[in-house]
UniProtKB/TrEMBL annotation:
<feature type="repeat" description="TPR">
    <location>
        <begin position="445"/>
        <end position="478"/>
    </location>
</feature>
<dbReference type="Pfam" id="PF13181">
    <property type="entry name" value="TPR_8"/>
</dbReference>
<dbReference type="InterPro" id="IPR019734">
    <property type="entry name" value="TPR_rpt"/>
</dbReference>
<dbReference type="InterPro" id="IPR011990">
    <property type="entry name" value="TPR-like_helical_dom_sf"/>
</dbReference>
<feature type="region of interest" description="Disordered">
    <location>
        <begin position="63"/>
        <end position="107"/>
    </location>
</feature>
<feature type="compositionally biased region" description="Low complexity">
    <location>
        <begin position="63"/>
        <end position="73"/>
    </location>
</feature>
<keyword id="KW-0802">TPR repeat</keyword>
<protein>
    <submittedName>
        <fullName>Tetratricopeptide repeat protein</fullName>
    </submittedName>
</protein>
<feature type="compositionally biased region" description="Basic and acidic residues">
    <location>
        <begin position="74"/>
        <end position="87"/>
    </location>
</feature>
Amino acid sequence: MARSDSLALIAPACLLIGGLGGALLTSQLGFPTAATQAASNAPAPVARPDGVDRNANLARPTAAAAFPQASAPRPDEAPEPATRREFGAASEEASGETEKPLASAEELGRADSLVAELTAILRSGRIEQALATDQSKVVDRLIDLYLEVGDAGAAYGLLGRVETRPGNWNFVAEALRRAGRTDLADEALAQAIRLALAGDSTGGEMPGNLWQIFQRYQNDTDAWLDELRASSPDVAADILQQQASNGELDSGMRIDLIQSLRESGRVEEALAEVESLLAEGQVNVAAIQELRELNPERAEELLNSLMSSNPSAEIELEYFRVLNSSGRSEEALALILDRAAGGTLPAHLLREAMRTMDADLVGEQVDAWAANAPDNVTVQTEIAQFYTRAGNYEAAADAYLSIYDVAASGNGGNVPLIPEGVAQAAQGAFVSRLDRMTTFAGTDDEYWGDIADSYWRLGQFQAAESCWRRANEIDPGDGEWTNKISAVENGTDPL
């Protein structure tokens, strides 16, 4: 390691000599002393989200053993208290702090011997050899220490002078955000993403293509991108644009780029990216959704064409949404009515209509849809939820009973938990269906459990307990059943 690299780490070490910060430094770098033992009231290490054990050193040498050439300075050579201006000019700029001693006189008095010993270590030159053996661990320790003393800005400054992995940048970004340093937090997070997309922990290139590299960091990078987009979409867009210019973004991340551009107000750039993606010839529903947000007229034109040349449920749904969102609800509803007249109820359009359209407009059609699809569990479920939201519990009960009739016929189907108000509207009818279902439940513990849940909601507590016990007999390893049985025995609500 170059001398300049090691000095980038030695300077922060000097900065942390004063008081208990110095005690933390020696103990975490593996150089415990008697003074370190006395400083047992030092704060505990910061919990790291990356799962790295910061206390994994097993046999730590004493400072004298680690650096035998070092000798303590004479009393007249005792150093003055370190200040941020002497040893941390770069970090001072990042942290925005003015010059001040790191520790009080009282704290320095308690650690005089420690200061002398650390000074001897630093003067010996041997610390550079120690740093050369495992720089990453030293960087981790120094970041922990800076954050323990509340100096996230100094930690940020240190990362700017050394090579480190993406996780450290994210770790410091979180600390900066907690401290209200949003701009620095965004830049630190952006650097974490750049490193994750570009290569390994030190920024070097990894074998394989970008997708293989991205897979290594995918879970973290997805979350980091979402966070950065929420805080600074413009920065996220710049990062992704750089990757796109190198041809290194798949279609999913190109959608992330389009969304970042749109969220940062760069509409023309977002439109250009959408058109470029759509021009590749494949039907990309996510790109069409973005086009619908950016230019509804252009989206309608494209969807009209696709409805004729390449129809699908997804395309039909997007076309419905374009019409509905542009104030043409009756035209959107006509898509459903035309399909219903042909003998088919499009469940995907019914769901969208009942969740997004004016209730009065849709309500005029719902009864007819329910009558035309008594055995369609998907349609009846949407109708039941529509009426429940509207507070029409009797109509909702009829739809739920249709669903229960399918399950009670022995032909499969699910047993949804009925909302409380709906359950009271037709309690006896629901109980009779559940009684019939028990004759078909067989050895399906989940089915028995669903029946039990519904019995309990209907106030049939003994029947519910009996069904949970039956489920537990079938699968005694499923904790859900034992937990619910215990709740019943303890007099608490198992639901």
